[in-house]
C-alpha cells in the first residue's frame, strides 16, 4: 500500500493542425513528429515530449514540448490519457502522460520544420517509435468524437471566420462532406456562433458574413480540470 | 527534449458504491478511504492506492489497490485523470494516475472495514490528504455526466434488476427524483435492457418484471482503451 516505486515519467503531446493539399485544395489533419536521436528506436519518428521538471505542471510541460518542437502556441490543450503498459518501452518502464493540442491553421503554416522535425498526414503515418501509432489513433478518435458535441473546431480558425470555413474544418476532421444548408441551420440554431455584422473584404458580389464564437455559451465539459488555452 | 526525470508515481482509485440509509431507505453514493499511517498527512483519510510494480499495468495496479483495501472486485474500472501539480504533495513531487471504479451494491455490503479502512458518503467527506477532495469531486462529476449518456448504471446492480431498481440507481447518482413513467419509456425505447421473461419471486400481486442489460448494444465509447471490467 505504501510503496511508491520510482518510474521514468514522460509527457508527450499529439499536435493537430489542418493543412490544405496544394493540388485538391482539400484540408486534412496533420501532426508534427520528431526524429529520435538515440536508442531505443534510433531514427524513428515519435511524438514530441520530454521529462517533467520538478517545478512544472503536466499541462505546462506538454505546452513547452509543443513550443520547443514547432515554435507554436496551442489554441486548445487537454489531457488525453496516461499510457503505462509494462512492455511499451524496450529500454525500461516509462509511463507517458499524453496531451492533445489544436493549433490554428494560419499559425501552423509558420511552424519550424527541419531534418528532425517533420509534419505528417495524421491518417497516413509511418511506423512510429514505441506505441505512438496507437496513441495517435486514440487522439484522432477523441478529436472526432469531441468535434461533434463540443465547440473545439474554432481552435483551428482565426478570431473570425465564415460558416463555409467552419464547415470545412468539420469536413476535414470528420473526413466526410457535409450539406452546407444543413450545417448552417445546425450551427445557427446552436447559438455557439455570433454574426459580427462584418463581411469578408474584397469579394464583390454577396461577400460571406464573418462570425465569431459565442464565449457566453459554456463549454461542454464544465468539470474539465484544465481549461482550454486561448 | 530527451531528459526524463525520475518522478514518484502513484496509482489511486476512487471507488463508488450505493448504500441505503437505514432510516429513510434512500440510496446514495459512498466510497472507501484509508487512514494514512505516515507523514505527510499522518492520520488523515486518503484514496486507496500505491506504487506501480514494474510488471503491472496501470489498470491492474488500480484494481489491486481496490482489492487489497476492500476485498472487492469492481464491475467497472476506467482511468479518470493524471494529477501532477508541483505543489500537490508536501513530501516531494508525486504524479498520481487516478482510476474510478463502480462496485455492485450487494457486494459492497460485504466490504472489509476496520480502524484504517472506512466508508464515507461521497458528498460529505472530511478534509482528505493531498488534493484528494478535488479528485473525488472530479470523479463525481464524471460519474454523473456519464450515467446520463452511457450504460454504466447497471454496474451498481446484479445480473437482473427491476426498472424501479435501475431508476433508484439513477436517482441516487443524480440526487434527484425521476418520474417513473418517463424513466420507463426512456429506458424501454433505448433498447439497452432486455426483459428476461421472469418476475421478482415472492411478490403475490403483479410482481415486477426482471430485466438484464443488452450486451449487443455497443458501449458509448468504442475508442476507450481499457474496456470496463465485468
UniProtKB/TrEMBL annotation, chains A, B:
Domain of life of the organism encoding this protein: Bacteria
Extract the Pfam families matched here.
NUDIX (PF00293), WHD_NrtR (PF21906)
- Tell me the CDD domains matching this sequence: NUDIX_NadM_like
Q: Which InterPro entries match?
A: NUDIX_hydrolase-like_dom_sf, NUDIX_hydrolase_dom, WH-like_DNA-bd_sf, WH_DNA-bd_sf, WHD_NrtR
> Which Gene3D superfamilies does this one have?
Nucleoside Triphosphate Pyrophosphohydrolase, Winged helix-like DNA-binding domain superfamily/Winged helix DNA-binding domain
SUPFAM superfamilies in UniProt = Nudix (SSF55811), Winged helix' DNA-binding domain (SSF46785)
| Domain Nudix hydrolase positions | 6-144
Q: Return the PANTHER family for the record.
A: ADP-RIBOSE PYROPHOSPHATASE, SLR1690 PROTEIN
- According to UniProt, the name of this protein is NUDIX domain-containing protein
Query: Which species is this UniProt entry from?
Result: Cryobacterium cheniae
Provide the organism lineage as a comma list.
Bacteria, Bacillati, Actinomycetota, Actinomycetes, Micrococcales
Amino acid at each position: 500500500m505504501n510503496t511508491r516505486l520510482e518510474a521514468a515519467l514522460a509527457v508527450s503531446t499529439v499536435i493537430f493542425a489542418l493543412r490544405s493539399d496544394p493540388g485538391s485544395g482539400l484540408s486534412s489533419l496533420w501532426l508534427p513528429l520528431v526524429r529520435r536521436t538515440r536508442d531505443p528506436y534510433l531514427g524513428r519518428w515519435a511524438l514530441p515530449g520530454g521529462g517533467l521538471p520538478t517545478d512544472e505542471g503536466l499541462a505546462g510541460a506538454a505546452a513547452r514540448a509543443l513550443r520547443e518542437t514547432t515554435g507554436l502556441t496551442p489554441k486548445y490543450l487537454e489531457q488525453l490519457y496516461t499510457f503505462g503498459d509494462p512492455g511499451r518501452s524496450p529500454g525500461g518502464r516509462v509511463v507517458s502522460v499524453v496531451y492533445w493540442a489544436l493549433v490554428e491553421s494560419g499559425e501552423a503554416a509558420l511552424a519550424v520544420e527541419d531534418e528532425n522535425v517533420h509534419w505528417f498526414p495524421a491518417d497516413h503515418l509511418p511506423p512510429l517509435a514505441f506505441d505512438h501509432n496507437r496513441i495517435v489513433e486514440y487522439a484522432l478518435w477523441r478529436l472526432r468524437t469531441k468535434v461533434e458535441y463540443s465547440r473545439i473546431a474554432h481552435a483551428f480558425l482565426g478570431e473570425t471566420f465564415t460558416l463555409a470555413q467552419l464547415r470545412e474544418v468539420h469536413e476535414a476532421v470528420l473526413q466526410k462532406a457535409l450539406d452546407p444548408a444543413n450545417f448552417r441551420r445546425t450551427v445557427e440554431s446552436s447559438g455557439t456562433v455570433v454574426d459580427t455584422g462584418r463581411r469578408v473584404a474584397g469579394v464583390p458580389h454577396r461577400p460571406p458574413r464573418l462570425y465569431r464564437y459565442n464565449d457566453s455559451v459554456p463549454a461542454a465539459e464544465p468539470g474539465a480540470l484544465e481549461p482550454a488555452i486561448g
